[in-house]
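--- STAGE predict ---
source: upstream dedup step, 1 unique chain passed
mode: sequence only
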Amino acid sequence: MTKSKGKVRSEKGQFVDDLDRVVQLKGINLDGGAKFPTKPSFPTHKPLEGHEGLFFDGDHVSFAGRPFPLEDVPSHINRIKSLGYNSIRYIFTWEAIEHEGPGKYDEEFIDYTIEVLKIIDDIGGIYVYLDPHQDVWSRFSGGDGAPLWTLYAAGFDPKHFQATEAAVVQNFYHNSEDPDVYPKMVWSTNYKRLAAGTLFTLFFAGKQFAPNAIINGVNIQDYLQSHFINSVAYFVKRINDKAPELFEETVIGVETINEPNPGYIGTPDASKIPDSLNLRVGTCPTIYQTLKLGSGIPTELDEYRISIFGPKKIGTKVIDPKGVKAWVSDDTYDRHYGFKRSESWKLGVCIWEQHGVWNSETTTLLLPDYFNVDHLSGEIADEELFINRYFVNYYKDYRKAIRDILPDTFIFLQSPPLEIPPKLKGTNLVDKNTIFSPHYYDGMSLMFKTWNRKYNADTLGIMRGKYSNPVFSIVWGENNIRKSFRRQLAEMVKEGKENLGEELPVIFTEIGMPFDMDDKKAYRENEFSSQTSALDALGFALEGSNISHSWWTYTADNGHKWGDYFNNEDFSFWSKDDIEEASFPGSSGSTATTGFDSKAYFNEHSISVTDFDSDSGTLAGSSSLLKSQTLKGPSSASSAPSHFGLRAIDSIVRPFALALEGEFVDSEFDLSKLEYTLKIKGKDTGDITPTLIHIPQWHFPSDEYEINVTSGKFIVEEGSETLQWFHENGYQSISIRNINAKTAQKGWLSYLLSFLPCFS
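--- STAGE serialize ---
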C-alpha cells in the first residue's frame, strides 16, 4: 500500500478520500501493552507481594517505550500493513501523561509518542486516531487509565482494596506461574464495586450526587474532569506544536474516552443487583454491600456463574475486611498532592455515608434510590439521562478543548458500549467531523471463551430488552449466528445515524474475539479453527454493511502463557510465541498452524538472513510478473515474512473495498470457497477514477484467481495487492475467485514455495 494522498474526509455519512471515493477504515488497536508502564513493568500477573513499594509509587512510573522500542516500530507497522489495514487506533492512558501529580505532565512520554508517530508517518499508508484508553478507571482498581492520585483525590486508600473487595485487582491475588489461579475479570461487576462505581459517579455527576465533595475550591466532578481533559489537550497540543505535519495526513482525530461508564448512576435500588447486570461471575455485591465492605463491615455476598440463560446464583460467601477500610485515614496524600478539601468532606469516612445514603453505626440503608434521582433537578437518573446529560456535558467540554487546538480534526464520539448513543442530531455538538465509534463483542464467545457453532445469543437484543426471557434470544446454527452478528452491527449503525445524524460516519473502534479459546487448545495442538470461524463471522458481519472498524488488538508482548499481559486477556492478532509458526487455510476455511520453521526453510533453500528485511517485512530480491487486463492474478513475495507470528490469518487477512467510486450495495468474502464479491452503484468516470479493492495474496496467490466484472476493465499494478476497477455507472458487481482453492489450501508452505523462482 502506498503512502496516502491527502487526509481522509467525511462526506454524507461516509469516509472519503481526495477523489471523493468512499473509504473503509480497516485497522487495529495498537497496542494492548500501553495499559501499564514500562518502568516499573507491572503486567497484571506480576504479584504485589514483595513489590508493594514499586506498585504504589504511582508518581515515579514511565510509559516511554510504549507501544514498543523505536527500532521495532517499522517491523510492527509493516506487519499491520501486510494485513491490508489502513488505520490504527493508537492507545494511550491518562496515567501515562499525568502520573506524577495534578498538572505535572510527562514530557518524555509525549516526546517518545511523537517519535513513534513520525515513523508511522514516514512509512505512510496508515491513518491514526488517538484513543485515551481506560478500563474500570485505573490499574489500581483492576483496569487501566487514570493515575493513582485520582483515587487519593476521591478519598480512597487503594492498598485496602483487596481486603474490602472494593476492586478485583489481579496483582493483589496470587504469586503463581499458573494463569488459571487468577480471578476471572468481568468488567460489569468490577465497574459496580466501590472503587470504580464511586469514581465514575463522581467523574460524571459529582455535583448531583456528591455536592459536598469539594476539593481545591471545586466539586470533585470538575476537578477530575478538568484534569483529564486538560491532560489530553496538552498531549494533543504538544504533538501539534512539535510535529504539525502529523496532522496533515496521518493523525486524523481523537476519541472522547474509552467505554465511559455510569458507575452507580441509574441503580433503582442500592440493596439489589440491577436486572440489567446480566454478566455476573464470582462475588457480585449490591451497591449497599460495597459500601459496608468499604467501611470494614463483614458482609455476605452472592456468588454467580454465567450460563446461556443468564446469571445463575451458586452460593454465598462472607467477606470480612476485619475492620480495614477502603477510605484513606489521614491527610498524607492531601499534603503530598496539594489537595485542599472542604470541611464537610471528612477523610476516613465513606463519601456516600457523608451524603446520607446509609449509616455505618446502625448498618442501615437510608436512601436506597439515591443513585436513581438527579439531586439538582429531581429527574429520574436512568441510563438515558446519564448518556444524554452527564456524558454529553463531559463530551461538550472535551470536544471544545480538542477543537480549540485542532478545529477540523475528527472527534470520535464513544458513548457507553452497547447503549443507544445520545440524541444530538441537529445540535451544534455534531458536525461532519464527528464520528460515532461504538464497540461490539459477542457476549457468549467472550464469557465462555469458545466458538459455539450450534447456538449463540442476540447480545444487542438482550441489551435492548427485546426478549422477555433470555431463552428467546438464542440463535441456532452457525449460519444464523453469522447473520445475527450482521443484523446487530447494522442496527447499531442505524441507531447512531438516527440519534446523531445521517451525516456522521460510523467506525467500530473495538471488535474482536479471544484467541485463548477452548482452554488454549490452539497452543497445544496448533489448531485455530475456532478462532478462524469466530473472526470470519465478525468479518462477514462487517463486510455486509461496509463498516469501518479497528480490531482489538495488536500486542507486541503477547505470549501464549499470559496473553496480552493484562487480566489474562488474549486478543492479539500477533504473538511472539507464534513467530516460528505460520497459519494455513485448512479444509472448509478452517485454520491450523503448521509448526513451520522459517529459519530452517531459509537455510534449506539457501536464502540468506540478509535477504529478509525486518524493517519492511519483505524478502529482498523478490520479483513479480507484469499485471494488466487479465484473468490471472499477481505473483509477488512482497509481504510474506511479515505474516510470521500472526494467528488465524485466514480470517484477519481479507479482501475489501479500499475506495469505492460510487455507492456501496453489498459485499461478502466466502472463506470456504475463497471467493470475494462486491456490488456497488457506480459513478461513470471512464478511465479517470477507479474503485480500489485490496486482494490479499494469502487467499489469491500467483496465477490462481480469476476476476469477473459486469462492466469496465481492471488492472493490478506490479508488486501490488490493490486492484483498480474502472467501471460504468449504475449497478455493478465484481467477483474474485481462487480458481484452485484446494491447491491454495495447502497453505503457507506452498505460498513460500511459490517464491522460489525469485531466488533461482
